[in-house]
Amino acid sequence: MTEIFGVPTQALFGQLLIGLINGAFYALLSLGLAVIFGLLNIINFAHGAQYMMGAFCAWLLLEYWGVGYWWSLLLAPIAVGVTGVVIERTMLSRLYKLDHLYGLLLTFGIALIFQGLFTQHYGSSGQPYRLPTEFSGGYNLGFMFLPKYRAWVIVASLVVCLSTWYVIERTKLGSYLRAATENPSLVQAFGINVPRMITLTYGFGVGLAALAGVMAAPIYQVSPQMGANLIIVVFAVVVIGGMGSILGAILTGFGLGVIEGLTKVFYPEASNTVIFVIMVLVLLVKPAGMFGRER
Q1: Residue 236's domain spans which residues?
Q2: Does residue 238 fall inside a structural domain?
Q3: Does any domain span residue 243?
Q4: Regarding beta strands 7-8 and 138-140, do their DSSP bridges make them parallel or antiparallel, or are they unpaired?
Q5: CATH at 231
Q6: What is the pLDDT of residues 219-258, one digit of tens each?
Q7: Burial category of 185 from C-beta neighbours within 10 Å (exposed 0-12, middle 13-18, buried 19 and up)
Q8: Count of the separate structural domains present in the chain
Q9: In this predicted model, what pLDDT tens digit does every residue of 37-92 receive, in sequence order?
Q10: What gap in Å lies between CA 166 and CA 218, rounded to an integer?
Q11: pTM of the predicted model, to two decimals?
Q12: Cα Rg for the chain, rounded, in angstroms?
């Protein structure tokens, strides 16, 4: 068996694959957080709960209504995004002129409520979600076996992330969104409904979290704690990339997933802390994050 730096090739590439998969979810979730913070200045601590709700929505659609994976990719983000719109209109809209801390505390409370409700109704044990038949099997690459669904998750995450970046940074709609955060009264003077734009932006960010949850359902157990276990790492990813930076969220998400995977090969004891160590080092050198701007 061939080795690289004393590590079997199959084990090394296997951990790289796991790192890329984790990075795909880090990127999707941190992208949603970056969109919400960058355009609304709200630190959305409910993001992990909304990721969990997306996975549960897909599971409920399959178990009770027989709605398969492909429809769930569309319906679950819309359903969870609608709950985000309600939250923004009824609660978050009252906090925009206050300190970021108030939004963080409110969304943290919302996350605890959602997690508690799902735990009370479904218990803390995970629910399995059947892998779509189209993704059974995989590809033998010679040096490793690549499951079809894992490959799909990586590619789909990249497409969604880059499409979102393009819309926000390279289109007229994105320029309106960015202008609305800098000078909402001026944008409103051009006949654009800024409050509606902000509401839909928050719903879109929440929908990204739900989409990540649907994609995670066939890989991980669908449980009320699945978001709580991930959101702290995702916040670290966002801080490293730069709060509000779309490109930073994407590149940092995938990059840190790969670094975490490699750490599991060469120094497994540090795999659970390596991202936080990197966060501390980045904040010491560049407090705004790698791609962030000083506010």
Answers
A1: 3-101+123-285
A2: yes
A3: yes
A4: unpaired
A5: 1.10.3470
A6: 988 999 999 878 999 999 999 999 888 999 999 999 999 9
A7: exposed
A8: 1
A9: 887 888 899 999 999 999 999 999 999 999 999 999 999 999 999 999 999 999 99
A10: 28
A11: 0.94
A12: 19
